[in-house]
């Protein structure tokens, strides 16, 4: 195991989050014991390893001395640890590589940008010295969006935006707030909360990701069913490109030709660096009500969620687990052996069958709105035969909702892989995608190893929803990356062949690029490339990503 | 006056709508008498004119005979009346020109496209023969979006899409419907109504405009506050360009780079021809409730509307007239002199002051939703001191809501100009725009002639709303076009200087193009042009529009 000092504000470069914080030890143990039984292991595999100080052979920087001289006073650092941390994101593939110290591309330096105005000069110098620039927010991406690949062996400079994080303007009348792009989730939300507002945007990475990262990747938060994805919340934005700046018009809506804003949202650093965004904000909810419970089947739950959305009710959270993810949650949540043993009796008493599906619905807003929405939600749950639990489980879910990524580290410590993959599709396609995925993985029609497979539905719309898949199993020793690639390919092909989108909120980056033509059509890709040629004619920005 | 035969299915090429239908004669007379008094005219000016058969000197077609031979069997017509009808839209400027037979650019021919598959060959031939193509839906645009301007004197072929109008797919589960682009509003809505659904998209032009036109111009319907603008309703679309076809992925949402869909929506025929779109549809509302009434001031109404939106209530219609538009409506609606005389007493009794503002709010959806929303709306109206009228006025409004454009013809017949112009802006900017506009026109700080000025607020969002301005007055004889240009310039400058958008739902076309750099930034324009070069490298499509 990597020796860990309890420095709470230092990031864990080889895993999730901050040093000094981990997944609940009892729950992690309970889940690992469950996996041990499932795989009939006499003992847990041991992947602990000690990283020596010299484990990472980080090459000398290739940044030209002249460039270093010019920028060292403006936020540039060549510190090895900084370079390491900024060389990877937080995907399973990233963690595999960092844990084994097999990193093929290192950042040659990290620029902690001190002020937006420096960007113009930075682009000029980058062009002059042929330096590749990789915009970087919280570094929590899971699709290789900040992979440090240069062009023709050019030096790679990671541009970290986190020092650019001020509130620029708050318009209480229009309920909008303009923030600089490098602001982290908690600071943004706290700033708004103090003024009586919320953005309502809580991606799993909330604690460590930035506004700019959200906008650049079309991120979705756990409460997106009410508040929308980040592209719905951005009223306007500013991007600084190598050939100039664009600030889109800050208006609620317009009919002025193609939307420049929707070209720049999701641009993942290939067109320029997003420096600020004006966001639609909401009054802090007066009330919030949770309704957790179980449906007899995934199908019942899907029908219920669909009907809620199509009648126009807008809960903030609607999350439905399939039977196997439900089982996983029970194994993680119920650390008491007694409760675990009693659970099947409760299920039987509630007539939930042998494949119950856990759900969590939250409604929030004004007291009147919550009263109305909560009543509608409960009406629909009953209509589809769901059983409701007490709301306290909801408070618990809310408290722990950013914890799950930490569990991945415990699993990897003990020789398990765990990867997730998500899509969105019309309601009419969701079950087909789900069953084809289960067929490929559970029935081993595609992937031939025994795995733990789970799925949940969330982020609902009138015309469809997102499906989020979890794949967990024993690492294929010595072939860990190959195993990951196989899973990625099989799962993504199932999605693409069944009318799903390549990604609902993870983005494209490097890992999804090979499917982009299928997603966007070949001509669509040419359109995206033509914009790239216009805004970044010298190809300085984030090469090899998206298109 | 143009001699009019009562052919109800023939379009009125010199005015609005169909021959055989006009604005209510009593109401038109009542309003004209009001204008006569307002301008202290001893008699109404007389702009009647008779158009002789040979009034329009339509030049010989410039389409090459070889091209004509190839396409005459595939929907091409060189008929003069068809060419005339397809040479203009329906703006005041268009009507001025058609009524005076001063049309500088005529379509050289009209192709009633018979099948989408012909487009590929059409582009090939257009390239070969250097023919300019102008996509055309209902021809109801008001910004010169189909102005028949060629490139370097090239022949201009208008491509009318109205024969491509089938329902391709209905997905009752996902609640989406895929239609071909040439379908007219009433047929689309009837098709959906028969299956229990509605698109909920009712622009003023509804009866005569097409789905493709709506999508190409980012149109908004009167019920957009609940159902969204057309860009919110399009789940995906197909465009056929000179270099190939793009069908965007039909999913509820995605994080797959920049949105190609939002590049093509609003492209106004400069990138290609939209051939079909998959639309989000809604169940036919179980119930609909109207609440008409008056506020004491425009400001009270704005505050009320804002609070309704920001607490999350979503009426379908929210429309608020300023005092002068309210006065106009009263003059038009109350044909009985007695009622007209009693009106001020009722206003006094209701303590509405001397500048009351008419409003109309509609809620619709499930019975439960309407019960909730209607109660919230009424609560807010009371909070802001509004007086409510009986709902019957709402039914009347709904019945007559597509009638108003006909009145323009009566006004033009009698020597008046009438033009409208719209924007959208954050709530915090709306009053500033309104007062600056009133200052420019009512106080004659900008426009020096005495006019009748009106404004209403509609199409509401959490962060702002649309303002719609009406300018009405005596035509400046012999300088009608110059007068129109002056108004357009003064009004648009007021909008652009105060943080409004160049257009909320009319589009850009030819008339708004000069302000596009201000709206999109110079670099934004370059982005739009780079896409044009990619999709239409030979510049065949709708030149001189948008960018």
Outline the structure in words.
The mean pLDDT of chain A is 95. The longest helix of chain A is centred in the last third of the chain and has 18 residues. Chain A has 20 helices and 18 strands. In chain A, helix 1 crosses helix 12 and helix 17 packs antiparallel against helix 18. In chain A, the strands form 4 sheets. In chain A, strands 15-12-14-13-17-18-16 form a 7-stranded antiparallel beta sheet, with helices on both faces. In chain A, strands 5-6-10-8-9 form a 5-stranded antiparallel beta sheet. The first copy, chain A, has a 4-stranded mixed beta sheet with strand order 1-2-4-3, with no helix packed on it. In chain A, 37% of the residues lie in helices and 19% in strands. In chain A, a hairpin with a 4-residue loop joins strand 5 and strand 6. The radius of gyration of chain A is 23 Å and the shape is globular. The first copy, chain A, folds into 4 domains: 116 residues, 2-Layer Sandwich (Uridine Diphospho-n-acetylenolpyruvylglucosamine Reductase, domain 2), CATH 3.30.43; 117 residues, 2-Layer Sandwich (Uridine Diphospho-n-acetylenolpyruvylglucosamine Reductase, domain 3), CATH 3.30.465; 114 residues, Alpha-Beta Plaits (2-Layer Sandwich), CATH 3.30.70; 100 residues, 2-Layer Sandwich (GMP Synthetase, Chain A, domain 3), CATH 3.30.300. By secondary structure, chain A is an alpha+beta fold. Chains A and B meet through strand 9, helix 10, strand 11, helix 14 and strand 16 of A and strand 9, helix 10, strand 11, helix 14 and strand 16 of B.
């Amino acid at each position: 195991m990597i020796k860990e000092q309890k420095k709470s504000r230092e990031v864990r470069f080889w895993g999730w989050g901050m040093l000094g914080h981990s997944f609940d030890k009892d729950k992690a143990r309970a889940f690992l014991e469950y996996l041990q039984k499932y795989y009939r292991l006499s003992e847990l595999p041991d992947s602990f390893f000690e990283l020596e100080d010299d484990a990472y052979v980080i090459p000398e920087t290739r940044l030209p001395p002249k460039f270093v001289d010019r920028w060292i006073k403006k936020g540039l650092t060549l510190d090895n640890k900084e370079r390491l941390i900024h060389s990877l994101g937080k995907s399973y593939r990233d963690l595999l590589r960092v844990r084994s110290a097999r990193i093929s591309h290192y950042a040659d330096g990290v620029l902690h940008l001190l002020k937006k105005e420096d960007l113009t000069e930075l682009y000029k110098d980058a062009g002059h010295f042929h330096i590749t620039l990789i915009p970087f927010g919280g570094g929590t991406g899971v699709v290789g969006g900040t992979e440090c690949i240069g062009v023709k062996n050019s030096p790679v400079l990671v541009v970290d935006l986190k020092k650019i994080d001020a509130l620029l303007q708050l318009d209480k009348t229009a309920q909008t707030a303009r923030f600089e792009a490098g602001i982290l989730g908690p600071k943004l939300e706290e700033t708004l909360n103090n003024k009586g507002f919320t953005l309502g945007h809580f991606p799993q990475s909330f604690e460590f990701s930035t506004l700019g990262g959200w906008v650049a990747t079309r991120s979705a938060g756990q409460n997106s069913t009410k508040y929308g994805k980040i592209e719905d919340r951005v009223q306007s934005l500013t991007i600084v490109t190598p050939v100039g700046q664009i600030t889109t018009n800050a208006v609620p809506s317009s009919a002025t030709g193609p939307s420049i804003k929707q070209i720049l949202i999701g641009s993942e650093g290939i067109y320029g660096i997003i420096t600020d965004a004006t966001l639609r904000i909401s009054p802090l909810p007066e009330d919030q009500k949770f309704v957790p419970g179980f449906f007899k089947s995934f199908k019942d739950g899907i029908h219920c969620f669909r009907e809620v959305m199509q009648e126009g009710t807008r809960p903030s959270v609607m999350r439905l687990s399939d039977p196997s993810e439900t089982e996983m949650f029970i194994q993680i949540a119920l650390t008491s052996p007694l409760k675990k043993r009693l659970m099947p009796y409760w299920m039987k008493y509630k007539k939930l069958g042998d494949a119950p599906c856990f759900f969590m619905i939250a409604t929030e807003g004004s007291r009147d709105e919550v009263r109305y929405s909560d009543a509608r939600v409960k009406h629909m749950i009953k209509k589809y035969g769901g059983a409701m639990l007490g709301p306290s489980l909801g408070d618990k879910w809310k408290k722990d909702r950013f914890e799950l990524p930490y569990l991945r580290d415990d699993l990897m410590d003990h020789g398990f892989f765990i990867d997730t993959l998500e899509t969105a599709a019309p309601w009419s396609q969701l079950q087909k995608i789900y069953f084809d995925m289960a067929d490929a993985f559970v029935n081993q029609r595609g992937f031939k190893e025994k795995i733990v497979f789970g799925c949940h539905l969330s982020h609902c719309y009138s015309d469809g929803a997102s499906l989020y898949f979890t794949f967990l199993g024993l690492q294929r020793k010595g072939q860990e990356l190959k195993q990951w690639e196989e899973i990625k390919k099989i799962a993504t092909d199932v999605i693409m062949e069944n009318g799903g989108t390549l990604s609902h909120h993870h983005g494209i980056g490097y890992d999804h690029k090979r499917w982009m033509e299928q997603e966007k059509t070949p001509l669509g890709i040419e359109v995206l490339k033509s914009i790239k040629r216009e805004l970044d004619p010298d190809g300085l920005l984030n090469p090899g990503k998206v298109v």
